[in-house]
Every structure is written in C-alpha cells, then in structure tokens.
Amino acid sequence: MGKSEMWYVIKAEKGAHLYAGFKQEITPYEYQKRVADGTITEVLADHQVKAGDVFYLPAGRVHAICGGILLAEVQQSSDVTYRIFDYNRPGLDGKPRELHTELAAHVEQNYRTVYPEAANRATQIIDTPYFDVRVMEVSKPFHRDLCKYDSFIITMCIEGDCVIHVRSTGDEVLLKAGHSTLIPAAIADFDVLPQQGKTRILDAFIDNRESRLATMLTRFFHFSET
Questions:
Q1: CA distance linking residue 197 with residue 222, whole number of Å
Q2: Is 146 exposed, middle or buried (0-12, 13-18, 19+ CB in 10 A)?
Q3: What is the C-alpha separation between 16 and 61, in angstroms, rounded?
C-alpha cells in the first residue's frame, strides 16, 4: 500500500532545495488547516541540495521537488500518488488537479541518505525490497556481473559518455549523459567503457535472490513429495 522511491541529485543550481518529511510534529487539525490555507510548506523539512545527494522516500513520506534541480528518480512499481497540495496550479485541462488531503493524513532528523563513494567501484546507496540502486564513477573499463540478482538492470549515464558492452552477445550501446538503457536479466554481465575520460553511472535493479531461492526450495520439496 503506497509507493516508495528515491531521488539522486544530478545537478542543482546554487540555493536549490527540496522538501522531504516534516520538520516538526503537527496535529491532524493543523495539517488540515495548513493545507486549506496554503501554508503546509512552512512545516516541511527543507533541504538545500547539491549534486550527488540522495533522498530515500518510503511510502507515506511527504516530498516535493523545487526549481533548479535535475535528478534521477527510481520508484517502486505502483500507480499510487497522494497529492496534498499543488501550489494552486491548474492541471493540463485548466482545472485544479485532484487532491488527496484526507487520505494522506493517515500515512506517515535528517532525511538525507549518506553513503561512502570511491572511484572505480560500485557503491550501494539504496537497498529496499522494491529496488537496489548503486552509483559508480569510473575512468577505466569496469566489469559489472549482476546475473545473480535475477533482475533486469536499468543503467543511466549521469555524467560523461560510455559504452555498455554485453559479454555474452558482444552487443554494444552508446550511452550519453542523460540516456538510459534496460539490460535483460539473462545478459546482465557487461562492461562499462568510459569515453573520453570518466563517466558516472547509476544502476537500478531488484534483488530477487531470496525469492529465487524460495522458488527453488518450493520446487525441490514438491518434487521430493511426488
């Protein structure tokens, strides 16, 4: 019930900020009142951001992106969105978009995710049941063997150009900054080849190792009983 997601800040103008979570506890009455009079942002946690910042947003955490930010968003597969305030903006049809003030009141300090990053290695920045995200800055050919996760891989180039070389098929695809590619689980053994210096890559996938093991055990016991 809900939709968990994460943000990775690619670029941010000076002074750019976003909202994630509340900076103070408020009552349901104050929440309703502030949404009605347009002051809800006054009690949200306001974060100034820079390139490389990561925010994990579990289902139920209020959040909003403000101007001057380019970011990558990875989210759980879900169509659920509770919109509590829309800055009084009209939708594409000229009418205010639907709000979910009452529903959002029943869901849900430092909300920024800190991670150690090193050159020429993959760093895990988020690990949830819904997605696993890793970032790497490489200046030389870098091998990625992710077959054990039994998942497709979405690879996004966020800085510099690179070539993705699939070892089993020999296929190659050029990724420029801002471009993404989906690598099927069956061929998730590939090389990242930086072009003209260094490149920064973001990988997102689902860690299916436990579910795969459970399926194998279920099949084993089924065959044993038979």
A1: 53
A2: buried
A3: 20
DSSP E strands in the chain: the ranges are: 5-12, 17-22, 44-48, 54-57, 63-65, 69-75, 112-113, 123-127, 132-138, 142-145, 153-166, 172-175, 180-183, 189-205
- Going by C-alpha positions, the residue among 200, 74, 201 that lies closest to residue 131 is 74
Could you report the per-residue pLDDT of 167-179, keeping only the tens digit for each? 999 999 999 999 9
Average pLDDT of span 63-69: 92
- pLDDT for the residue numbered 28: 83
**pTM of the model as a whole:** 0.73
Question: Using CA atoms, how far apart are residues 56 and 26, in angstroms rounded to an integer?
Answer: 22
**Cα–Cα distance measured from residue 34 to residue 46, given in angstroms and rounded to the nearest whole number:** 16
- Residue among 167, 156, 161 at smallest CA distance from 194: 161
List of residues 6+ apart from 163 with CB closer than 8 A? 172, 173, 174, 175, 192, 193, 195
Active site residues: 83
Q: Which residue has the tokens 């205010």?
A: 96
